[in-house]
Design a protein that fits this description.
Blueprint (H helix, E strand, L loop, with lengths): L4 E7 L11 E10 L4 E9 L8 E2 L2 E4 L11 E2 L17 E11 L2 E11 L7 E9 H5 L8 E5 L5 E8 L4 E8 L8 E10 L12 E8 L9 E11 L2 E11 L4 E10 L7 E4 L10 H4 L7 E9 L2 E8 L3 E8 H9 L8
Antiparallel strand pairs: 1-21, 2-3, 3-4, 3-5, 5-6, 7-8, 8-9, 9-10, 11-12, 12-13, 13-14, 15-16, 16-17, 17-18, 19-20, 20-21
Length: 338
Amino acid sequence: MLRVERLGVIIKPNYETLFERLQTFNPGVYYDERRDVVHIFPRVQCSYSPYTAKIMWYVADLSNGVENLKKPKRVKDYPIFGPSEVYHWAGTEDPRVVKARITNDDYLIMTYTAVETFHPLRHRVGVAYVKAEDIESLKPSVAFSPLGVTEYINDKDAFYFITKDGQVYYIHRPAGVFARACMWVSELEKSKIHDMESLKDLLKMKDPKVFVKARFWWENDKIGAGAPPLATDSGYLWIYHGVQYFGVGRIYRAGVFLTDLREPLKVIARLPKPLLEPKEPYEKWLDVPYVIFPTGAFIRDDFLYIIYGACDTVVVAARVRLDELLSELDKHHEEDIS
């Protein structure tokens, strides 16, 4: 039986701070493998009125032990990113972070939900960037700079998928196309990361199409992208969220599937049961009940670490042995799933 070990709440609201009094959750994650340091960028809120999300910055130095993941340190006492442009004046939410080399520099590219107004049809995906070295060296004055928004309206749960050979795809979840919202993929005009002449090329997309649809009982409402995928010897490993609607509420769970290394958009295995579902009190009984929302993951030694928001309130970490997870996926090849 596949065993997922919960490491518990690693970041929670802090009522003594200005920006994190209410909620700290759904973080973007970047693992600096060379330094063995995890950078965590949670969405934070200090009040319900106005309800405006910003993004903070924490680090966990694992070089002295993985236990440090349970007690990350805040790098700055103020946000590393937040509303500054008209297209996200009402909030910068649910970031995802990937590393990309563009025009001879390494960047961290953050995608986030840009809330232009409080109307649900005004969610777009914003893109921001920072030089990777400035984050890795903990430069105190560093901040993400806004690049712009993608063209799709009422879109979220997005990130750039950069394959091992440099192919770039935009993964996202537009609403209103199907009864059950699902994961889509768009191509970029400059399909190779090495061909991009500027960061602005990241905003030039085309040919949106369905990537992965909701299928199982625990996804009867919708699914959406979670953590940016990780390359393994068996394929690209994707952690996503599925939502079950049961009349009086919703339950958010985390699932997993695998895509082919040579055909990175071809799903080759998918677990029919959730990898994570709400069990602990902090996953069931806080601000928004019964929510597990994965937004970051990394591989270290023999484990896959998953970082997720719980109940729109706290940041939680869990881990699973990578070999056991891949072995379980091997039992559920795509052709075996009806």
